[in-house]
TrEMBL record:
Family matches, as PANTHER family: ALPHA/BETA HYDROLASE DOMAIN-CONTAINING PROTEIN (PTHR12277), FI04476P (PTHR12277:SF194)
Transmembrane residue ranges: 15-47
GO molecular function annotation: monoacylglycerol lipase activity; phosphatidylcholine lysophospholipase activity
A GO-annotated cellular component: endoplasmic reticulum membrane
Positions of the Serine aminopeptidase S33 domain: 127-246
Transmembrane helix among keywords: yes
Descriptive protein name: Serine aminopeptidase S33 domain-containing protein
Record GO biological process: monoacylglycerol catabolic process; phosphatidylserine catabolic process
Entry keyword set: Membrane, Transmembrane, Transmembrane helix
Length: 353
C-alpha cells in the first residue's frame, strides 16, 4: 500500500516539474527570439532611418575621454612647450588647437607663448595632427605621439574638429570636419613662410586628412607630405570589416540597411578616390593586430595608390602582431621618430629635385 501511495504523490509533482521545465523553455526561447528580433530586425531598421544615429556611431564625437579636460593648460597632460589657442573658420566655427614646440626651441621659448605663432616660420617641419573618432586632442596615445614628434624637432598642430572637445558644438558631417582640416592647414600655411607642412591622420583622421589634402592640392596648396596611421580604403569597406557588424554581415539586407544609408548620408570618406593622382608623398603605418581597421585595408590602399600615383612617393610600414600596437599604439614604436624624420627628409629632397 505504501509504494502505491508514494507513486500517487509523486505523479502530480512530476507533472508540475515538467510543466515548469516547459514553461522555462518557452520563456527562454521567447527571450532569445526577442533578442534576435531586436538585433537583426529592429536595430538595422532604426539605423537605416536615423542619420543622426549613423553620424553618432561613426564620429563618436560625444565620447569624451578623459571626461574633463582643461584645454588651456596642456602642461597638465605632460606636454612641455604647448600653447592652447582657437582658430575661427570661414563658416564661423571655433576650433580648439594645441601648438607644441619642437624640442630644439623648448629651452629658449617654452614660457614665451607670444612667440609660438611667429616660430612656425623658423624652418622646422610642421606636423598637423588629425585624430580619429572619439576623444580629444588630450587623449593619452595622442599625447605620446606629440612627444615623438617634438623629440625630432617638429612643430605639432593638434586640432579638435567641430563638435569635438571645446570646438563649436554643431552637427558633425564629413564635409564639416574636412573643411576644418583645410582651414587649419591654410591658417598654418599663412604663418609658415616656407616651413614644410606635413599632415598626420589616424584612423578616421586618415579619411579626413586624405579628403582635405586632396582638395587643397586642387586649390594649388601642396602639403609636403601625408602620414596615414591605420587607414582604410573607404568608409563602406571599413563598416564591412568592423567587428561590431560581423553578426549582421551574413544578413541578405546588410547592404540595404547598413551600408547604403551611410553613403546616402554623405559619410563616404573614399580615400582611394580622394588620393588618386595626388602629388604629395604618402607614408602608411599599420599594425597587423589592428582589429578596428584591419591592416589588409591599409595594404589595399597602398596597392591602389601605387597604381594611381605613379610619379609620387608612396610607402608602407606594417608592424608584426608581436609588438601588440593594435589600433592606436604605433606611437610606442621606438623607431617611429627615425621613420618619420626619414620620411620628412626624403620627401623634402624629392620635392627639391
Amino acid at each position: 500500500m505504501a509504494p502505491c501511495m508514494c507513486f500517487s504523490f509523486m505523479k502530480p509533482v512530476m507533472i508540475i516539474l515538467l510543466i515548469s521545465i516547459f514553461a522555462t523553455c518557452c520563456i527562454t526561447s521567447s527571450f532569445f527570439a526577442i533578442i534576435l528580433f531586436l538585433v537583426f530586425i529592429i536595430i538595422p531598421i532604426v539605423f537605416r532611418y536615423s542619420p543622426s544615429l549613423q553620424r553618432g556611431m561613426i564620429f563618436l564625437n560625444y565620447v569624451r575621454i578623459p571626461a574633463v579636460v582643461n584645454y588651456s593648460h596642456p602642461e597638465n597632460y605632460g606636454i612641455k612647450g604647448a600653447n592652447n589657442f582657437y582658430i575661427k573658420t570661414f563658416d564661423n566655427i571655433t576650433l580648439g588647437v594645441w601648438h607644441i614646440l619642437p624640442g630644439n626651441l623648448l629651452k629658449k621659448y617654452d614660457e614665451d607663448k607670444s612667440s609660438y605663432e611667429r616660430l612656425l616660420s623658423n624652418g622646422e617641419p610642421i606636423v598637423i595632427y588629425m585624430h580619429g573618432n572619439s576623444g580629444t586632442r588630450a587623449n593619452e596615445h595622442r599625447v605620446q605621439l606629440y612627444h615623438v614628434l617634438q623629440k625630432i624637432n617638429c612643430h605639432v598642430i593638434a586640432v579638435d574638429y567641430r563638435s569635438y572637445a571645446d570646438s563649436t558644438d554643431v552637427e558633425v558631417s564629413e564635409s564639416g570636419v574636412v573643411s576644418d582640416a583645410m582651414e587649419v592647414f591654410k591658417w598654418t600655411h599663412e604663418r609658415a613662410n616656407g616651413s614644410p607642412i606635413f599632415g598626420w591622420g589616424h584612423s578616421l583622421g586618415t579619411g579626413i586628412s586624405a579628403h582635405a589634402y586632396s582638395l587643397l592640392e586642387k586649390e594649388g596648396l601642396y602639403p609636403n607630405g601625408l602620414i596615414l596611421e591605420a587607414p582604410f580604403t573607404k568608409m563602406s569597406d571599413e563598416i564591412r570589416e568592423y567587428p561590431l557588424t560581423k553578426i549582421h554581415r551574413m544578413l541578405p539586407w546588410f547592404e540595404f540597411f547598413i551600408i547604403e544609408p551611410v553613403v546616402e548620408n554623405n559619410i563616404i570618406f573614399d580615400t582611394e578616390t580622394n588620393l588618386m593622382n595626388t602629388k604629395m608623398p604618402i607614408l602608411i603605418l599599420h599594425a597587423k593586430d589592428d582589429v578596428v581597421i584591419p591592416y589588409k585595408l591599409g595594404e589595399k590602399l597602398y596597392t591602389h595608390l601605387l597604381k594611381t600615383r605613379q610619379n609620387a612617393k608612396t610607402e608602407i610600414v606594417l608592424y608584426d602582431q608581436h609588438y601588440k600596437y593594435g589600433h592606436k599604439y604605433i606611437c610606442k614604436d621606438e623607431e617611429l621618430g627615425n621613420r618619420t624624420w626619414k620620411f620628412i627628409q626624403d620627401s623634402l629632397e624629392n620635392s627639391s629635385q
